[in-house]
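Q: What would this chain look like folded?
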Amino acid sequence: MKSKILLIYTGGTIGMKQDPENGALVPFNFDQILEEVPELKKFAYQIDTFSFHPPIDSSEIETGFWQEIAILIGSKYDSYDGFVILHGTDTMSFSASALSFMLENLEKPVIFTGSQLPIGMLRTDGKENLISSIEIAAAKDDQGRAMVPEVCIYFESQLYRGNRTTKHNAENFRAFRSSNYPCLAEAGVHIKYNTSFINYPKTWGNNLNINTSLDTNVAILKIFPGVSQQVVSGVLNSKGLRALILETYGSGNAPTKPWLMDILKDAIANGIIILNITQCQAGSVDMDAYSTGILLKKMGVVSGFDCTTEAAVAKLFFLLGHNYDNQQIKDLLRKNLRGEISIN
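A: My prediction, written as C-alpha cells:
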C-alpha cells in the first residue's frame, strides 16, 4: 500500500513565486503543488494538501496557530502516514518545539521544512527540502513503522529533532543548527537514518493525545554586563507572570549582586518559576560547577540543562497549561519529556 502524506502549507518563503509582470513575490496556490514541483509525481505516494488562507508570515505566529495545527493533525492522523508542514523559518523552531509537546504518543513523522529562497526561483533550496521531507515522512521500516516518529525540522540535507533546533543563519541555506543533539538523518545519495538517536515508542499502537492547553505567562530575561535593577524588577513584576526563563552565562552563572539575588528570591517566594538556561549556542547548564550557579540552585532556580530557548518556552507554555502545582512543574522541567534535554 502506497504511503499517504498530508502536505500542510502555513506560509513562508517556500510558498512564494515571482509575479512575471512586476517581479514581486506572491503566494502560489498550493493545491497546484504538483505543477510547481513536478518531481513529486515520481513518488509512489498519495500527496494531499491543506493550505492556510491567508498564508501566515512566521513572525506573526501565535499559540492559536499551534493549536490549529495540532487539532488538524489529530483530525487527519488515522488517514495519513506522515505530515509535512511548510513554515517560515523565523519561528519554525518555536513551532516544532511546541508541537513536540502538544502531540503526545506520536508514532508518525511530523516534518517542518521551508526555504531561504522561493520555490519558483532557479537557485531555490525549497525543492530539495520539500522532496526530501516528503520522502522521510513516508519512510517505514521492515515492520511498516515510521522511521522517524517525531516532530522534526528538515533543512539543507539534515533532519533534526525539532525541539533541539535554533535558527542559526538568516542568509545561508543551512539555516538551522542542533548544537546539543546529533541529526536524526542525513540526505546524500541515500538518506541515512541515525536510528540510535531517534525516539521510538516503547510500545506501538497508542492513541495520539492532543494537548492544546497552553499558558503564555512566561518572560525571558537575558543576563548581560550592566543589567539594571530596574529592568530585572520590571520583568519579574510583570502582571500575571508565572515563569521566567533566565538566560545566564556559560554553564548557568549570573552576577551575585545582592539586589539581583534578592529580586530572584522574592520572585520564587511569590510563586514564580525560574528556569536557568545558557546563552551559549552549545553546552549545558551545570549549577554545581561554580559558586554562582550553586547559589542560584540553593534559592530554588531550576536547571534547564541543555535546553534551547525555543524548547524552554514551549515546555513552560505546555506545563503551565495543565493543572499542575509549582513543585510538579519544577519536577517535570527536570525531566526529559520529548527528547528536549540530555540528562545523564
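The chain has a mean pLDDT of 93.
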